[in-house]
Amino acid sequence: MHEKHLMICGATGCLSSGSHLVEQALVEELEKKGIRDKYRLVMGGCPGFCEVGPIIVIYPDEVFYCRLKPKDMAELVEKHLVDGEIVERLLYKGPDVDMPARFYDTIPFYAKQKFNVLRNSGIIDPESIDEYIMRGGYRAFTRALELEPAAICEEVKQAGLRGRGGAGFSTGLKWEFTNKAPGDKKYVVCNADEGDPGAFMDRSILEGDPHAILEGMLICGRAIGANEGYIYCRAEYPLAIKRLKLAIENAEAYGLLGENILGYGFNFKINIKEGAGAFVCGEETALLASIEGKRGMPRPRPPFPAQSGLFGKPTTINNVETLANIPLIVKEGGAADFARVGTEGSKGTKVFALAGKIRNTGLCEVPMGITIKEIIYDVGGGIKGGREFKAVQAGGPSGGCIPGELIDLPIDYDSLNQAGAIMGSGGLVVMDERTCMVDLARYFLSFTQKESCGKCTPCREGTKRMLEILNRISEGLGIAKDLDTLDSLAESIKDSSLCGLGQTCPNPVLSTIRYFRKEYEEHIDEKFCRAGVCKELFNYRIDEENCTGCTACVKACPTDAIRGEKKEPHEIIQELCTRCGSCLEKCRQECIMITPVGSEADVSN
Amino acid sequence: MSVINLTIDGKEVEVAQGTTIFEAARQLGIDIPTFCYDPELAPNGACRICVVEVENARTLAASCVAPAGSGMVVHTQSERVIKARRAVLTLLVANHPLDCITCEKTGECKLQDYCYQYGVSDSDFGGEVKELPDDDSNDFFVRDMNKCILCGICVGKCQDVIGAGAIDFTRRGFVANVGPAFEDAIEDSTCVFCGLCIDSCPVGALTPRYSLGKGRPWEVEKKKAVCPYCSIGCNINLHVKNNEVIGVSPFETNLVNRDQLCFKGKFGWDYLKSEDRLTKPLIKSNGVFIEVSWEEALGYAADNINAVKDCYGSDAIMGLCSPKVTNEESYLFQKLMRSLGTNNVDSFTRHCHAPAVDGMMKAFGSAAITNSIEEISKTGAVLVITADPAESHPIISYRIREAVRKGAQLIVANPEPIGLTDLAHYYLPLNEGSAVALINAMANIIIEEDLQDQAFIDKRTEGFAVFKSAVAKYKAEHAAKVTGIEEKELRSAARAYAAAEKAVIISTADTHYSETGGGLVLALANLALLTGNLGKESSGLYLPYGENNLQGVSDMGALPSVLSGYQHLKEKAVRDKFSRSWKTEISERRGLSAAEIFDQEKFSQIKAMYVLDENPVSCLGGKDSEIAYFLGNLDFLIVQDIFMTETAALADVILPAAAFAEQQGTYTNTERRVQLTQQAVNPPGEAFPGWAVIAELAGWLGFEWFYECPGDVFEEMALLTPQYAGISYERLAVESIQWPCPAKEHPGTAVLYEGRFSRGLGLFTSVDHEKAAEPGSETASIFKVYDHACQCQSASMSKRSVIANFIKPARGD
Amino acid sequence: MDKFIDRCCEKCSHAKDNPCKDFISCCVEGPICHKNEICTGKRKAIIEKVALNEQFTIC
Q1: B488-503: pLDDT as tens digits
Q2: What is the Cα–Cα distance from B90 to B105, expressed in whole angstroms?
Q3: B802 within some domain
């Protein structure tokens, strides 16, 4: 029996902050002291608060240590494990708490979160099927085996679950279509090709709680009459693939996959198909083509996959997060519990990846209906560096931006659609006044142009032309009619493209023009990038009145473009300045201004 | 099939459920623009120019894929639609070389046409434009991928229709392109140069080399002709400018080859302009050929024939006809021979097919493919045995692919893998020489499992009881040892064939290819009879012939024992009928067959030969062979041909003939379809249409024949030939007709044996695997085995064409 | 009994080719098909090894 359990976050964010080195150091310390066997160490799933990683949570003590470094392990072992005292300096600290917070319940990041889909993440060893079962796993599936397939579809419908991949279609209704489709052979497909840049919600579920997906697929198979499933997982997630393979192996060994499962005469087999680096394969029909061994290009619909999908058979395709919700809904009493959370049109919770200029970056799971304001300020801790909130991009390359004036908008499929944004897969990129909206649109459009499969004219050619216009604008070569051309092109592309990628890729452009038209006009007419991003369109200037002559910027400049003696106001030599921004970072007086090229005026406020 | 109603541009239309908006609009005569739609392919929805506005729908709908809905209201020319179409065109133009002035496609380019229609002359995006290098790598066509608009039609055709799979989309986004794997040159890919991509491309990305600089589309006259290579007889358009053939394309859509060709038809016609063409009559004098006038040549020939006849008798003269010449030529040729008093007339390579012919005659009473080529696409199962349709008769392989796409089971039984093996549900790599054992075993399995069509057997066949006991010893386990195919596979394949409602068997008439001669044909006939797969659509036995008019040369009676329509010389009534028409006596002595040339004793009686478009010296061993010796030592040899061949080199007089594009005439393809080919250009020099040469010679020989045109010849023949009786040039000008066609009002016969077999009941004939291993005719060892038509006849046409390097050598070469 | 798939005693019959319908609930609440303190204890031991706290399992 172990004295304590140390759950170390081994997921994306913390790994890249060095959590594997932290773990190594921890093991070394314990072995040095000869007490390794007293403690259970688990490299587990993501607790969500990536900003403060690496993270170790100790049970049953319920202590949350964060911002860890390998050299902290000596103290942690000595003080907490051996002496039984909490190491305060390693607890969570921030402007949102008066004193260091000990555990989830006192950390503001977690206050408004509700863990449905992430219920097991960071709590269990992702490679253990037993732990999944201990926490209620496969009970919903056992119940589903007792129910009629149509009844399962109905329950999921009543719960109000909508597809979490982005489209927000009623999951229960989708299942019902496939259930009703004629044919003996049907398929369940899990879309684990999470492609939005910066999105890692699905990754966390796959790596942290893979059995949830298997159970979701089993229940779906029972509901639609399928006996085989595929998980299409992007190859860039090798750990997820490894965990899924192991989970499938274990489930097969336990008789939860295979023939005559649990004696109900139900057969189900799950295969894994790895993606090959194409964003477009996240689109349903392109995904199916890829599984079939063909080039990943979308197909026209109808026929819809529910009638004719994988290998021409009726198929249900669901997103990872959608499937992870299913066991919660189908368990006894689950549908009602699920529907109690959220809004009228959008039930349940949603996992969001918070990124950008926000203090608390990471994954959070919140009830639908929470407002943008609450996510940004309560969960997200507000804008980093105390700056102003400018906008938040929701839905990645398919989505739109939501400006400050709409900050009270509740997160809900329908309200986001009306605002010209989409829920998307859940990526939220928060922006302050140092984000250039033109550059943002350009960033997303260059992504979609590279990822466009090339099949249809509007997307293949249109995104290229839109991108060329945005490039010109950001280089100071914009002309008056560019906005009209962008508008017109965007509309045509939206109206005529074959698949979701094409139909939604103009959204970032359209919504940034809609809410930040002045910024575009400033780029075009005045050749000025107010945010200080488009390098051809601004200069850095030092406000001589406020400059204290500390020479911090002089030392920071890589091209020796700043002249100035100690205690004398400094000056930037524009011909040498590359606008890399190093001086801006170092200046403590905030006296470096962003000004139009060739102008003296301070417009940085 | 339920119907629905919808409104398009204010007009109501009723269509079957499942019809697309595009097709529904067509029914109303509304032509929606499209680049990527093709009736042979599943709708792609790629180009997006066919978008239409559907009231209450969120986005525009691509009409080529969107199903028409009940009560839908559609606008095909609304402002929103026009804007979207102009956007698509502007985007395409922005990335397209605007060199219409010199582009070969100008005048028949869809991009050009739609830009004109929608007023798009340029784009002002001013951004990047593709700059890909031309793929100039092969002898046949040039690929300028900068003009490609990625409609995907070529990819669909290459992968699904043809099955060569040489090209696909590569890369993504703006740099997406179409090409072979790994961006290899097309020459290094699996391209079979069928030309389908070229003929389907809506813009000028793909251009045949033969077109470059030759003429604009509006300068070209298109003449309908029939391909001279294999026995499918594809309908082609000859593109003619200034009395020169400058190109070939498929003839719109027709029941033989739809809009498809193979590399032979598409590219193999340039032999017409070969320098080797004979252009003047020649007489050999002192071992050297000198050019003479027609009068001299024909007079000389007539004199010498008469001399031989007077000296040795009529039977010292022999005529060697050709399976490549028109029906009119064959008919007149054998008429000439018979008018001279002999029945010594035959065609050579018919003998490769003799076992097949004999086999079918025995089983059914007629020797011809039992059904039509087009029907293959609708069958439920296909058994391909010891044949490679993709090589020998590509059109048939296209139909097989289509059948499989539509759900048919495919069984391929061949010692080596063939192109179709990848598509096959059952591939049986049987041991060489074991085909009969395989088929017998399949028949036995079918009987064992009671899968035969007993009703058909009882009503339409005889000899079943004997057959059943004879085939009983071909138990699956025993057959497995002989054929090398596992019992399980044999059973599955047999079941698949028998279970289908309609099933076809495809082999080859050139049964030396299968090394089991006529025995295999009988075994296959048994299998078809056993399962009732005869006498109904999309079933039957297909043993397609090699050369383009092999069917016709036999139909016309260029055979030693029968007259046209296979009417027997033995029958006095038959001889009398022909006698009256031809105003000459007809001998009842059976003539010498071509195979008997090798019988020294028999052949020594021949002193004079008239060889029509044949090259036995090359086919049968070269200039030092026995046959060369025979021919060289004849008293008199006339050769009528289009080239100076090895055989012609031995002649005493050479008569230059017109090639297929240079004369009007008919050919009968392997599905008994009589087709009319037009004269597109004049023959070179003083060459003349073959039928006219024979008629002239007949005149010099004292026979009074009066034909003003080939149509007259055909008319006479039709009066004498029951199967052709209802066919005329007038009817053929409108559409081709499959015999039997006994009367003017008769539509022709696609499916044989619907009510009865030609011999009454179908006959089961037991074939023993060991016996069948011997070739069916003595000529077996002499002939090389040819995989496809252009290798036959010494490849005289194809080796003088750009396709020469693309032909596989015949086995045994 | 190290894992739930291991049988607690001979009375347990669950296997891939002879599955027991109650397998899942039996893992935590069992044994179901028979009463035996030792078997119950075996399951508790598996759980206790990994349970982070009292609220870990959900029944």
Answers
A1: 999 999 999 999 999 9
A2: 19
A3: no
- The Cα of C9 is separated from the nearest Cα of chain A by a number of Å equal to 17
A311 inside domain = yes
Are residue A414 and residue A300 in the same domain, yes or no?
no
For residue A280, list chain B residues with Cβ-Cβ distance below 8 A.
172
What CATH number did the domain enclosing A451 receive? 1.20.1440.230
Domain count, chain A: 5
Task: Please list every residue in chain A whose beta carbon sits closer than 8 Å to the beta carbon of residue C16.
Answer: 252-253, 255, 258
pLDDT tens digits, A411-467: 999 998 888 778 888 999 999 999 999 999 999 999 999 999 999 999 999 999 999
H-helix or E-strand containing B305?
helix B294-312
- In this structure, what token pair is assigned to residue C8? 């607690």
A85 reaches C (C-beta below 8 A): no
Expressed in angstroms, the distance from the first to the final Cα of chain A is 61
Looking at residue B452, which CATH number applies to its domain?
A: 3.40.228.10
- Beta bridge partner(s), residue B427: B412
Give the domain range for residue B418.
370-543+760-775
Q: Which pair of structure tokens corresponds to residue A4?
A: 């304590």
Among A263, A308, A261, which residue's Cα sits nearest to residue A289? A308
- On the 0-12 / 13-18 / 19+ scale of CB atoms within 10 A, B241 is middle
Cα–Cα dist B695/A522, whole Å:
90
Contact (CB<8Å) B174/A452: yes
Q: Is residue A315 part of a domain?
A: yes
Evaluate whether residue B106 is within a structural domain.
no
Measure A394 CA to nearest chain B CA, in Å.
Answer: 22
**Residue B41 in contact with partner chain A when CB distance is under 8 A:** no
Say what the pTM is. 0.89
> Which residue of A3, A104, A132, A133 is the best one to mutate when testing the C interface, meaning the one whose CB has the most C CBs within 10 A?
A133
Instruction: Give tens-digit pLDDT for A260-295.
Output: 999 999 999 999 999 999 999 999 999 999 999 999
Inter-chain residue contact C56 with A138, CB threshold 8 Å? no
Cβ pair B88:A453 closer than 8 A: no
pLDDT at B791: 56
Model confidence pLDDT, tens digit, residues A72-128: 999 999 999 999 999 999 999 998 899 999 999 999 999 999 999 999 999 999 999
- Beta-carbon separation of C3 and A130 below 8 A: yes
Between vectors from CA A220 to CA A218 and to CA A226, what angle results, nearest 5°?
Answer: 80
User: Number of folded domains in chain B?
Assistant: 4
Is C24 within 8 Å of A123 when comparing Cβ atoms? Answer: no
pLDDT score for B778: 39
**Does C contact B via 3+ CB–CB distances below 8 Å?**
no
Choose from A457, A479, A491 for mutation: most chain B CBs within 10 A: A457
State the smallest CA–CA distance between residue B75 and chain A in angstroms. 15
Minimal C-alpha gap between A401 and chain B (Å) = 22
Pairing of β B461-462 and β B636-641: unpaired
Average pLDDT, chain A: 93
In whole angstroms, give the CA distance from residue A497 to residue B48. Answer: 7
One domain for residues B261 and B123: yes
CATH of the domain at B191: 3.30.70.20
Same domain, A200 and A306: yes
Numbers of helices and strands, H then E, in chain C: 2, 0
State the DSSP code for B279: -
Residue B777 pLDDT > 50: no
Helices H / strands E in chain A, number of each? 23, 17
Write the CATH number for A34.
3.40.30.10
- A236 and A287 both lie in a single domain: yes
Are A297 and B125 an interchain contact pair (Cβ–Cβ within 8 Å)? Answer: no
Distance from CA of A451 to the nearest CA of B (A): 6
Partner residue facing A449 (CB), from B84, B150, B173: B173
Residue A134 predicted with pLDDT over 70: yes
pLDDT of residue B782: 39
Res A210 pLDDT > 50: yes
Query: What pLDDT is stored for residue B783 in this prediction?
Result: 41
Tell me: do B658 and B564 sit in the same domain.
Answer: yes
